Amino acid sequence: MKMRPLVLAISADDRVGVALREGFARAALDTVVAPSAALGLRALSTLTPDVVFIDLDVADLPMPELRERIASRGDAGEMLVVAVRACEPPVGAQGPCFALEPRVDDTRALTPRMLGAHIARALRARTVSVLESSIEVGALRLDGRAARAFVHDVELQLTTIELRLLATFAKWPGQTLSREQILLGVWGIRPRASRSIYTHMKRLRRKLGAAAPLLATVRGVGYRLEAAPPVHAPRASA
């Protein structure tokens, strides 16, 4: 079973933090709560969340500054940023409710459980948009609709980011993708001086195990998913 997506929630309200953990868990999301924007930004130096969730009513930094600080990370385009404000709960609802920012006329009051479902759908849509059907390359099989990956029918424990990265290569097997193509074409961010792709590739290869040779490094260019591991001819004896 693959690893669950990780949410970094920034909220100074302990009651909200507890509600978010419980509601997001129902959507198969793991949650780490930071009680301030400063601590949330510090957590980003050690965590690689799939989602940054910001409670604007209790954030100790304005949203433009928060977004700028988050964007300073090389892999910022890989994270989904969700900002909310507290709103009046509907009749009969218990616990905190939120409205997504920016608000629109038909914005509904969302419970933490509903927000978790919304985030899970958004993460799945990101992956499915990259890989819309099943693809098999050698021992590797990806099921885009289910957002799952297998090697020899054993499911890989991939993060959402790793799955999206692998799906990108699987969509164009045999073609070399440059770092710029991955950043701009897949995650929609401009190339910047970052080693985040290198780090993700290293982790992804480690998780692929015996199928790791399928991911080839094209020195000075980028990466390519081979149809099969390269075959090296034996050296001739002297």
Overview of the molecule:
- It is a single chain.
- By secondary structure, this protein is of the alpha/beta class.
- It contains 7 helices and 12 strands.
- The protein has helices spanning 14-25, 37-43, 63-71, 112-130, 160-171, 179-186, 196-208; strands spanning 6-10, 30-34, 51-55, 80-86, 98-100, 135-137, 140-143, 148-151, 154-155, 176-178, 215-218, 222-225.
- Strands 2-1-3-4-5 form a 5-stranded mixed sheet. Strands 6-7-8-9 form a 4-stranded antiparallel sheet, covered by helices on one side.
- Residues 229-238 have low confidence and may be disordered.
Query: How large is the radius of gyration?
Result: 20 Å
Q: How many beta-strand runs?
A: 12
**What percentage of residues falls in helices of 4 or more residues?**
25-40%
Strand order of the largest sheet: 2-1-3-4-5
Helix tally? 7
> Could you please say which CATH topology of the largest domain applies here?
Rossmann fold
Order of helices and strands: EHEHEHEEHEEEEHEHHEE
SSE inventory with pairings:
Layout: E1 6-10, H1 14-25, E2 30-34, H2 37-43, E3 51-55, H3 63-71, E4 80-86, E5 98-100, H4 112-130, E6 135-137, E7 140-143, E8 148-151, E9 154-155, H5 160-171, E10 176-178, H6 179-186, H7 196-208, E11 215-218, E12 222-225
Parallel strand pairs: 1-2, 1-3, 3-4
Antiparallel strand pairs: 4-5, 6-7, 7-8, 8-9, 10-12, 11-12
Helix pairs in contact: 1-4, 4-5, 5-7
